[in-house]
Amino acid sequence: MTTLxxxxxxxxxxxxxxxxxxxxxxxxTQAIWFRKSLGGSAANTAxxxxxxxxxxxxxxxxxxxxLGSHVLEGLRSEGIDxxxxxxxQDRLTALVVLSVQHPTxxxxxxxxxxxxxxxIGPDDVPEDLVRRVRSVLLTGTHLSTAETFAASxxxxxxxxxxxxxxxxxxxxxxxxxxxxxxxxxxxxxxPSELARLRFREILPFCDVVxxxxxxxxxxxxxxxxxxxxxxxxxQVRERVVVKLGSxxxxxxxxxxxxxxxxxxxxxxxxxxxxxxAFLGAYWAxxxxxxRSTGAFLMETLPVxxxxxxxxxxxxxxxxxxxxxx
Length: 325
Known about the structure:
Layout: E1 7-12, E2 16-21, E3 34-39, H1 41-51, E4 56-63, H2 66-77, E5 81-88, E6 95-98, E7 108-111, H3 127-130, E8 133-139, H4 146-161, E9 165-169, H5 193-202, E10 208-212, H6 213-220, H7 225-235, E11 239-243, E12 249-253, E13 258-261, H8 274-287, H9 293-297
Parallel strand pairs: 1-4, 1-8, 2-6, 4-5, 8-9, 9-10, 10-11
Antiparallel strand pairs: 2-3, 6-7, 11-12, 12-13
Helix pairs in contact: 1-8, 6-7
């Protein structure tokens, strides 16, 4: 029997509220005014993918609180299917507080102790919804606890059974794995043995893996970026995509073919959220068969218009071409 594929992507992971300091150049000690935005890597990617024309659903959880309502409203306003978003009565919606200090520094704090979006277990994976999607997105933070790791494995099993492609965003935040102090939310490079082991367990079931140079090294358990990239490429089904910020991006296929592309130069206000915007646009281009330079340009385009996380795509038109001019 033919399966109806009426959705392109099911995004599983963080959905939170970001509070951004309004005073540019200030750290969190100095910041007074904050602006509320939808945030979380999986939610950010879902929003950008939807704006690129993909039919997107979200698998996550929010608290039964006003911030959870804001997250739901934000997702629905982008046309994202929220039928698999659970409302949790005994946990609060996740929160991140950030300052826009300068283009290369955005100090932030994760308020995620027993947060709602980590209350997803294997029984919450919607098999009927997975049956309808072309691809699923897994994210690294949701490998960090036993419950969400089990949910990730369940989602992988369903994706395999229904022939869905699997995209993994390494989404590695050391402070969420206990590898950095809670007050160092901006830390990225501190390794975690638990993270390495869990990445290693799921890599063979992933088609495409995306991460920064630091994330690639953590996932591979290697210090040399090129060696780490080659190792990950040998473990996945299709390719590894390494995000290089202003330097663009690089892909390495299972067969060892490396393709590098320069970044699109813009005046950067702050890069938070740019990687998520890139991933949403990259995957939209991939699903359309447009593996071209234009997909990589999307990493830096959004920050030209806005410095704020998921608010990154807000000033963007509903669809920006991923084809090179």
